[in-house]
Design a protein that fits this description.
With 321 residues, the chain is of the alpha/beta class. It has one domain: 3-Layer(aba) Sandwich (Rossmann fold). It is built from 12 helices and 8 strands. An 8-stranded mixed sheet has the order 1-2-4-3-5-6-7-8, sandwiched between helices. Helix 5 packs across helix 7. The longest helix has 18 residues. The chain is globular and about 55 Å long. The model has no long low-confidence stretch (mean pLDDT 96).
């Protein structure tokens, strides 16, 4: 962090600001360690509601993990018959909460629009299961998905990894693991406002403090839970905090989006720049006035609709659909 005075954050989008004022009556900007357990209970997903009115099948399967079995959920269109895109999904929740259904509305839209099959993994959460448990669980799930592509109705040439927030960071870390271990070949990675940098020292990480959703203090809570005493030391791996990677070559085509009014803005822009510097393909969208998770909590806002359209358009182009 430089020594200059931190300026106020860019303003929230007008439509989103009105929605945020209502949300903050129930959801405070800062999540502290003692709030993790109540939030886990309060934010539990309603799966029947997610699938209501959609012609989508859902089944669960137990798969081998690095330390015992893991559960994955598999979603597909009811009329799915020809192998097509596969989306391996890593959910958000600051590394400390959420489940494999968190943020699933975006994935279900891709099931409907692209006839994709989505595999969502129930990775272990910090602080009970600190790094490397979450990213190793995600990697195990990706390996299983690739190995079972035919049975799942997935074209292995169209295997995509995607995640939002902490899940975006885990997706990026998993893609780095796949690259470095010679693991599954990915056609693309879609990183939705990803959580990439444990150091929390960007301008945007200081600007978003006590405002929005998932502010500077929340970020400290999540990273402390994941990394403990290793945080902010040279003992943090690139798979836990992908912003620390110095070589971003040989990654799949990448899509990154983030709002201007959220903690992760600057680390996400820097990650895209590092991919370009390594000669890679990355499309970056920085949405003016977006707070963290705006598209999820306000799906019908104009900015949210534009955001979802951009993701879907990029996937169509990248997968040749």
């Amino acid at each position: 962090m430089n020594s200059h005075k931190v300026q106020p954050a860019p303003p929230f989008d007008t439509e989103l600001a009105a929605i945020l004022s209502v949300i903050n009556e129930q959801l405070p900007p800062t999540i502290t360690p003692e709030m993790i357990e109540p939030f886990r209970v309060g934010l539990a997903s309603d799966v029947p509601a997610l699938l209501d009115g959609r012609s989508i099948t859902h089944r669960e399967q137990s798969i081998p993990g690095p330390d015992g079995d893991l559960i994955v959920s598999i979603f597909a269109r009811a009329d799915h018959s020809v192998a097509g895109p596969g989306i391996f999904y890593t959910h958000g929740g600051g590394m400390v909460m959420g489940d494999r259904f968190t943020g699933m509305a975006t994935m279900l839209a891709w099931v409907e629009e692209l006839d994709a099959v989505v595999v969502s993994v129930e990775y272990r959460l910090a602080p009970e299961h600190p790094d490397p448990a979450p990213v190793e669980d995600c990697y195990a799930g990706l390996v299983w998905t690739a190995a079972n592509a035919a049975e799942l109705g997935i074209d292995p040439a169209k295997l995509v990894i995607s995640g939002g927030s902490a899940g975006g960071g885990l997706a990026a870390g998993t893609a780095l693991l796949a690259r470095d271990r010679g693991g599954p070949k990915l056609a693309a990675q879609v990183l939705i406002y990803p959580m990439l940098d444990d150091r929390n020292h960007t301008v945007s990480s200081y600007q978003i403090d006590g405002t929005g959703i998932w502010d500077r203090g929340s970020n400290d809570t999540g990273w402390d839970a994941l990394l403990g005493d290793r945080r902010n030391t040279d003992q943090v791996s690139i798979y836990a905090a992908p912003a620390r990677a110095t070589d971003l070559s040989n990654l799949p085509p990448t899509f990154i989006d983030v709002g201007t009014s959220e903690v992760f803005r600057d680390e996400d822009v820097a990650f895209a720049s590092a991919i370009w510097a390594a000669g890679g393909h990355c499309e970056l969208h920085v949405w003016p006035g977006g707070f963290h998770g705006y598209d999820s909590v306000a799906p019908f806002a104009a900015l949210s609709i534009a955001t979802q359209d951009a993701r879907l358009s990029w996937l169509r182009r990248t997968l040749g659909m």
